[in-house]
């Protein structure tokens, strides 16, 4: 594992009985890097993320996280908010934390996601976007070094989605988080990530480095190139014809 | 605008007591109709004594101490039976809900026993335990065990797997996983089981006390029947109805206390 590396994935294979979910995946993710995993459904994006999170084990190969290979430096945000409906917002934030100053830290994070006035609310009193903000705040509670995002914005409307993208980018940059985002949305990947990894037929077969401080035009170019790789040029031409 | 607001407030003030009183309307009408029918002689007192006569009988039995004594014995049997049956049902539901091995080992047999009407066990219980307290408490315990078991088991085994996975991603220990995720998630279903068990508890006790007892409300009714004392028979039935209603109210209060999050509105959004 090199000095700058935070996550190292080596020759990873994952089988579900006869089904190959991942085949010979190799990927190196540096500290503070924002990676987007994109690709068609069934390409193995979410499976790879779950393996990195330690929720499942690879059939073969190795995944090393940080110097100690400890999963406690990672937190995951899911497509559904997965807030506990019987706990208010403040308790939802503090439930996974062992820190004594949990409540104060939780309030700071609520302010960060601009929901400081909602500490006493229950999840069923919040909108979808608010719930995802709370889920983001909860993921940040233990000061993780790695943030795993499994399509967390998939169910949000366009405006809320854009706001959440900005919020996540802002938080990741400020806290220098290593981030892996799984998404179906190529534009989202092109807007947010430093590097886009395309997963196809159970392996990572294409990578695209995104320019820093990109403008809308550059985002469009990157998104088109990635889409080309996912669908194939012929398919794109067919769709545009 | 101000006027319409005042009218709306006045309307709300007027509507609230009506909604609270509405559930009592039908019983009050029925009792009044019953009383009028008895007063006018449409109902013979040997068939159905008037509510007033039943009330007078209740006062007389309370003053003599007979009603409080039998009531407390019935309450004791019901409470102890529910605690034992509910406790065993909860433990079995918990272990079968949490462990696949225990589920495979026990659930099929429990389901087989559950399908035996527990009141059919009365002759066997009398032969084994006689007609003392343990017999009646055992019957109540058997009757209340299954609703609590089924609902605890179902509640625990149907906890949203996404929440469990979230707990795993937070590296919760087994006990943290149970107390912070599984138990609160299963609680609404467990409370449904307890509420249902309360109904079964009274039904079982009535039958047990009627068939084999020398005290309790059921015994009082049975004894009154021997003396053709219709007022006391009706009084006992009314007491059971009131006890059932009180139990249900207690269960409902627990639900609103423990499941506050379910009823919290979305008005703040």
From TrEMBL, chain A:
Which InterPro entries does the annotation name?
Answer: AAA+_ATPase (IPR003593), ABC_SmlMolc_Importer (IPR050093), ABC_transporter-like_ATP-bd (IPR003439), ABC_transporter-like_CS (IPR017871), P-loop_NTPase (IPR027417)
**Keyword Methyltransferase attributed:** no
The record's listing under Pfam families reads: ABC_tran
CDD domains linked? ABC_NrtD_SsuB_transporters
Keyword line: ATP-binding, Nucleotide-binding, Transport
Task: Provide the ABC transporter domain boundaries.
Answer: 7-226
- The reply to whether Secreted figures as a keyword in the UniProt entry is no
What Gene3D superfamilies does this protein's entry cite?
P-loop containing nucleotide triphosphate hydrolases
Select a single GO molecular function from the record's annotations and give it: ATP binding
Protein name in the entry: ABC-type nitrate sulfonate bicarbonate transport system, ATPase component
Gene source species: Companilactobacillus paralimentarius DSM 13238 = JCM 10415
Automatic annotation (TrEMBL), chain B:
User: Which segment of the chain is annotated as a signal peptide?
Assistant: none
**GO cellular component terms listed in the entry, alphabetical order:** plasma membrane
Q: How does it sit in the membrane?
A: Multi-pass membrane protein
InterPro entries referenced in this protein's UniProt entry, alphabetically: MetI-like (IPR000515), MetI-like_sf (IPR035906)
Subcellular location(s): the record lists:
Cell membrane
Residue stretches making up the ABC transmembrane type-1 domain: 67-251
Q: What is this protein called?
A: ABC transporter permease
Write down the species.
Answer: Companilactobacillus paralimentarius DSM 13238 = JCM 10415
Q: What is the lineage of its organism?
A: Bacteria, Bacillati, Bacillota, Bacilli, Lactobacillales
């Amino acid at each position: 594992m090199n000095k700058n590396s935070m996550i190292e994935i080596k020759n990873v294979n994952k089988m579900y009985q006869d089904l190959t979910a991942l085949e010979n995946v190799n990927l190196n993710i540096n500290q503070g890097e924002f990676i987007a995993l994109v690709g068609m459904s069934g390409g193995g994006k979410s499976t790879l993320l779950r393996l990195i999170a330690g929720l499942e084990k690879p059939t073969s190969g190795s995944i090393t996280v940080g110097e100690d290979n400890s999963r406690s430096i990672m937190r995951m945000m899911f497509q559904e908010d997965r807030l506990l409906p019987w706990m208010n917002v403040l308790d939802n934030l503090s439930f996974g934390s062992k820190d004594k100053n949990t409540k104060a830290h939780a309030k700071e994070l609520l302010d960060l996601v601009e929901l400081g006035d909602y500490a006493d609310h229950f999840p069923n009193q919040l909108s979808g976007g608010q719930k995802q903000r709370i889920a983001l705040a909860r993921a940040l509670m233990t000061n993780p070094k790695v943030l795993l995002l499994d399509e967390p914005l998939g169910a949000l409307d366009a405006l809320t989605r854009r706001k959440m993208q900005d919020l996540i980018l802002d938080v990741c940059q400020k806290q220098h988080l290593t981030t892996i985002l799984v998404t179906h949305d190529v534009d989202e990947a092109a807007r947010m990530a430093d590097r886009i990894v395309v997963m196809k037929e159970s392996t990572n077969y294409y990578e695209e480095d995104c320019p820093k401080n990109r403008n809308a035009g550059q985002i469009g170019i990157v998104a088109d190139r990635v889409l080309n790789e996912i669908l194939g040029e012929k398919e794109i031409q067919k769709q545009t014809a | 605008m101000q006027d319409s607001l005042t009218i709306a407030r006045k309307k709300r003030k007027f509507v609230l007591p009506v909604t609270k009183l509405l559930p009592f309307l039908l019983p009050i009408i029925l009792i009044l109709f019953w009383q009028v029918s008895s007063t006018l002689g449409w109902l013979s007192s040997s068939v159905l004594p008037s509510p007033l006569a039943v009330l007078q009988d209740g006062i007389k039995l309370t003053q003599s101490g007979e009603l409080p004594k039998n009531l407390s014995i019935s309450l004791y049997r019901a409470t102890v039976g529910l605690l034992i049956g509910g406790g065993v049902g909860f433990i079995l539901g918990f272990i079968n809900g949490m462990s696949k091995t225990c589920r495979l080992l026990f659930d099929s047999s429990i389901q087989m026993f559950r399908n035996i009407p527990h009141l059919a066990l009365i002759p066997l219980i009398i032969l084994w335990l006689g007609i003392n307290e343990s017999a009646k408490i055992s019957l109540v315990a058997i009757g209340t065990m299954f609703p609590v078991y089924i609902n605890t088991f179902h509640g625990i085994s149907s906890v949203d797997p996404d929440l469990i996975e979230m707990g795993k991603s937070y590296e919760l220990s087994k006990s943290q996983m149970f107390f912070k995720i599984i138990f609160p998630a299963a609680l609404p279903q467990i409370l449904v089981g307890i509420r249902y068990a309360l109904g079964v508890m009274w039904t079982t006790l009535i039958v047990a006390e009627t068939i084999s007892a020398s005290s309790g409300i059921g015994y009082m009714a049975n004894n009154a029947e021997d003396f053709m004392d219709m007022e006391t028979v009706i009084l006992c039935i009314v007491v059971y109805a009131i006890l059932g209603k009180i139990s249900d109210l207690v269960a409902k209060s627990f639900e609103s206390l423990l499941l506050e999050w379910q009823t919290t509105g979305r008005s703040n959004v």
